[in-house]
Amino acid sequence: MDIATLIGIVLAFGLVAFAIGGGIASFIDPPSMMIVIGGTVGVLLVGYPLANCIGVIGVALKTFMYKVDPGSDVVGKLVELAQVVRKDGILALESEVGNIENEFMAKGLQMAIDGQEPQAIEDILYMEMDKVADRHSRGADMFTALGTYAPSMGMIGTLVGLVLMLQNMSDPSSIGPSMSIALLTTFYGALMANILFLPMAGKLKTRSKEELLIQEIILVGIQSLVAGENPRIMEQKLLGYLPPKERASSFE
After folding, report:
1. What is the pTM of this model?
2. Which of 62, 71, 46 is nearest to 5 (CA)?
3. Quick check: 77 and 68 in contact, CB under 8 A?
4. Which DSSP state fits 240?
5. How does residue 250 score in pLDDT terms, banded at 50, 70 and 90?
């Protein structure tokens, strides 16, 4: 679980609630919530297929619960496999594939064991990386869109509140509720966009880059395995993808 996402949301909402203080009841207005929340969901349904909209909850959960294999562990595993290949040949990896949890790595290794041409392995794995990037991009784009829709619906709610207020200027008792809608819809829209949707879109993009980096390391490692490259040379090549503080040689 990504504790940073949870802490960030709780901290942001908590500070807003602290600033409001004891008057938080004044910031709860069902008609304003209906305009912003309902309107944002409705516009999302207009802009994206129903299946994507239903899946947005699952995409949101990835900002909280998402596991990317540490780069150093991936490099270490590939070096371990390279040592097996150097000693017993590529077919010796047959017994290792079933124990590998990373599906991308297992798929690449199985193709290598099956005797696929190096170019074919590269093409297939790159195609899979492109599909992963496309899926991740769609999820991040949806949250970016939500971050745009929510403030826009807030502005629409503001206009509704102002129109209602101007139509009933002769009735002082109606000015307060109308003004409440006008101000709170903008507040809700800004809150949802800047605390939830846009930060989530940023987190999803970061997660995508992390996963694609790991997959690129795996691809290069499998190419080295097929070529029978020296494990030490392969390790130095793969460690170059990682930040200096994460580089640790298996041969030291």
Report:
1. 0.83
2. 62
3. no
4. T
5. low
